[in-house]
Amino acid sequence: MSSFSVGVDLGGTNLRIAAYMRTSGLLETILLPTRLSAGRHAVIEDICHGIHKLLANYSMKHELIGIGIGTPGPLELPAGRLHNPPNLPGWDGFELRAAIENCLNIPVTVESDANVAALAECVLGSGRTLGIDSLCMLTLGTGIGNGIILNGKIWHGAHGMAGEAGHTNIWPDGPACGCGSNGCLEMYASATAVRRIALESARSGRAPAIAALAETKPDFTTRDLSHLAASGSPDAQQVFDDVGRALGIGIGDLVNTLNLPLYVVGGGLANAWNLFSPALFQEVRHRSYVYRLTEPGSAVLNGKIDTGTRIIAAELGADSGLLGACILPYTISEQRTAGTPDTTLR
Ligand SMILES: [Zn+2]
């Protein structure tokens, strides 16, 4: 009997629940709005109702290998307890894993959305393409998510809170961040930050093209701004140069610390990769001697069969969080079989 999994991608706006098989990919996906205003128990009911529906459709023919849940953090593992998550207001202290398990009467695995996105990128995206099973991924969205995969396993740290590189410091006296610090990477290279920086430059009078965009479309997106830059606006390009520079500082620190073979930039803003990556690479080369020594074609790699340190845009798009939640139960099952379970997972 072939196995299947159920994955849940819980977001602040959308809730997606899917059945998945390794051989066939996504079998069926349920898409719902996340009913935050109806209270967290309404959201848990929606999650459990969707899981029950998929179990009814597939568990007669296939064996359930497990249920994976990806959620916005901060998340404490293995308890599956949320700590004041910015994208789930009012959920501070909520025992997400226990709430879902009490409703379903089936064990589930809870994981942060950035970690499952990194897992998916490693197993199904650029990691698979390059034959690499360790990577560090930054997801540029409302904030900056981060996941670290080491030898095919999510690196959790001691309390499940590893991978918060969005809150590494870029400028000590920079704008106040939601985490309590100032000048975090998230304040310079998230989609939210790009809009803020663009509006600041428009208000300063230095960026007439952005001011015109903000005038005609006050709720302009990072995509609108990237179109403006791609059409040749130096004002808009300057914003993406600044994004690339901040990312280059952050990733340079990560390269120096981790010396992993692969760093991946994902999330909606990664669509502007061609606009910000030249400044990113310039900054990484300046900040990280580890990168200079190990980038493709460098001296350390001379004559060796090695891909070197790669920094690339993510292969997987908006499905990475959902796919990661779906493959999580397979990964855990393999670790159990291999006798190397990660005790923080459950
Ligand atoms: Zn921060």
Strand and helix layout:
Layout: E1 3-10, E2 14-21, E3 25-33, H1 40-58, E4 63-71, E5 75-76, E6 81-82, H2 96-104, E7 109-112, H3 113-123, H4 126-130, E8 135-140, E9 144-150, E10 153-154, H5 186-189, H6 191-203, H7 208-216, H8 222-230, H9 234-258, E11 262-266, H10 273-287, H11 289-294, E12 310-313, H12 320-338
Parallel strand pairs: 1-4, 4-7, 8-11, 11-12
Antiparallel strand pairs: 1-2, 2-3, 5-6, 8-9, 9-10
Helix pairs in contact: 1-2, 3-12, 6-7, 6-9, 8-9, 9-10
Bound molecules: zinc ion (ZN).
Zinc ion binds at residues 167, 177, 179, 181, 184, 186.
Number of helices: 12
| Rg over alpha carbons | 21 Å
Q: Tell me about the largest β-sheet.
A: 5 strands, mixed
Question: Which whole number gives the mean pLDDT?
Answer: 93
Distance between the termini: 25 Å
Question: Which percent band covers the strand fraction?
Answer: 15-25%
**DSSP E strands, number:** 12
Q: Enumerate the distinct ligands.
A: zinc ion
**Which word captures the global form?**
globular
Low-confidence regions: none
Percent of residues in helices comes to 40-55%
Outline the structure in words.
- With 346 residues, this protein is of the alpha/beta class.
- It contains twelve helices and twelve strands.
- The chain has helices at residues 40-58, 96-104, 113-123, 126-130, 186-189, 191-203, 208-216, 222-230, 234-258, 273-287, 289-294, 320-338; strands at residues 3-10, 14-21, 25-33, 63-71, 75-76, 81-82, 109-112, 135-140, 144-150, 153-154, 262-266, 310-313.
- The strands form three sheets. The protein has a five-stranded mixed beta sheet with strand order 3-2-1-4-7, sandwiched between helices. The chain has a five-stranded mixed beta sheet with strand order 10-9-8-11-12, sandwiched between helices. Strands 5-6 form a two-stranded antiparallel sheet.
- A hairpin with a 3-residue loop joins strand 8 (135-140) and strand 9.
- The two termini are 25 Å apart.
- The site of zinc ion has 6 residues, from loops.
